[in-house]
Amino acid sequence: MPAILMVNGPNLGILGRREPEVYGTATLFDIEQAIEKELAERGWDLVSVQRESEGELIKSIQEHYYTVGAIVNPGALMINGWGLRDALASYPRPWIEVHLSNVWAREQFRHESVLAPLANGVIVGMGALGYPLAARALLNMTPAAV
C-alpha cells in the first residue's frame, strides 16, 4: 500500500509540551492522526519518523525511498542540515517542508532554510494544521494509481 513519509527533526518529539506559546499544544501523535485522516480517502499509510540527530534522519529517509512523498519538519536542521539536504536531494518523490511557527517572524537566524530550495513546497506558521495541509498537497501532486 502506498505511504507518505513524515520526518520530524530534533526536539519535535516533545510537541505539546515544548514552548506551547510558539509550537502549540498538539502532540506529534495528534499530528499523525490528522495526517492519517487526510490519507484515508486514498487508503494510503503514514510512516512517521522523529529523530534527534541528523544522521538518524538521513538513514530514515534512505530507508523509505519506497514512499510516494514526504512531509519534512527538519526543526533547527533547516539552518545547517547539509547532510539532510543531500539526503532529500536524492529522495525520489515530492516532499513538502513544514514549520509550525512562522520562521520569518522569529529570530534572524531562522530566516533561511538550506532545504527549502529543494522542496516542492513550504508551509510555515500554520501550527499543527500545516501537516495535514502538506498531506493534502502531496495527495494532489501524486497520481492515485501509484
UniProtKB/TrEMBL annotation:
It holds the Pfam family DHquinase_II. CDD domains: DHQase_II. GO terms for molecular function: 3-dehydroquinate dehydratase activity. One of its GO terms (biological process) is chorismate biosynthetic process. Pathway: Metabolic intermediate biosynthesis; chorismate biosynthesis; chorismate from D-erythrose 4-phosphate and phosphoenolpyruvate: step 3/7. Substrate binds at N73, D86, L100, S101, R110. Keywords: Amino-acid biosynthesis, Aromatic amino acid biosynthesis, Lyase. Its EC number is 4.2.1.10. The record marks R18 as: Transition state stabilizer. PROSITE patterns: DEHYDROQUINASE_II. It catalyses: 3-dehydroquinate = 3-dehydroshikimate + H2O. The keyword Lyase applies. The active site is at Y23 (proton acceptor), H99 (proton donor). Belongs to the type-II 3-dehydroquinase family. Homododecamer. Catalyzes a trans-dehydration via an enolate intermediate. This is 3-dehydroquinate dehydratase.
